[in-house]
Amino acid sequence: MDFRVGQPAQYRVIPLGLDIDACPSTPGGLRHALGLAPETVLIGIVGRLCEVKNHAMALEAMAQLVEKATVHGGAVHLVVIGDGHLANELSAYARHLKIAEHVTFTGFRKDVLSLYEKLDIVALTSLNEGTPLTLIEAMGNGRPVAATEVGGVVDILGELQMTMNGFAVRAHGVTAPSRDTAAFAQSLQYLIERPMLRRQMGSRGHGFVRHAFSKDRLLRDMESLYRHGSHDIKVAIGLETGSRQ
């Protein structure tokens, strides 16, 4: 829709900037607390437990992964980090799907930034996103990601490598269409079976975030705006901060 508010030259958008090196590390950490074996693939999803985050889809995909792991061997665990009004409903749904022993709900965690490094894959199943802070934080910690193709997700997942079984393999992770649980589960399985690829995606994502979303880049952009910006600029900064609460 064209709102006819100003001209393109009158706007500047400054992307999010993070202090990437400020992510603390916790000895032992999440895996130790969950009592997981070293070979267990740990998938994490970070965000408010509300409708738009569509955690139900993550649980349904997890049910498919657990069934496959039971048949073919291997172990997988999902940790849901965050709180919200759907907490009890989602916990009940995990029991309904018979995967409760493979899912941990942590509730709200102040130390969320220290948890990423213990995850093998970071998932996002949102129905809508702006600039997904969770994925940027995950990549900043060298984690590969699996996400639905909504909002600004594809913009940060990097170049398309290939498509297969309804999902896409990209430079920094994999994506599947929104609400397509089968394709999302397939994309997670693809990453689970390829630990070397996960490390490569994590490394590329880390480099991308350091270049595109660092605190230093944000400060340079802000300085440039104030030094060289025109007085005709109507909207100086458009900054998507995201939320994981």
UniProtKB/TrEMBL annotation:
SUPFAM superfamilies: UDP-Glycosyltransferase/glycogen phosphorylase (SSF53756). InterPro entries: Glyco_trans_1. Residues 34-205 form the Glycosyl transferase family domain. Transmembrane segments: none annotated. It holds the Pfam family Glycos_transf_1. GO terms for molecular function: glycosyltransferase activity. This is Glycosyl transferase family 1 domain-containing protein. It comes from Entotheonella factor. The lineage of its organism: Bacteria, Pseudomonadati, Nitrospinota/Tectimicrobiota group, Candidatus Tectimicrobiota, Candidatus Entotheonellia.
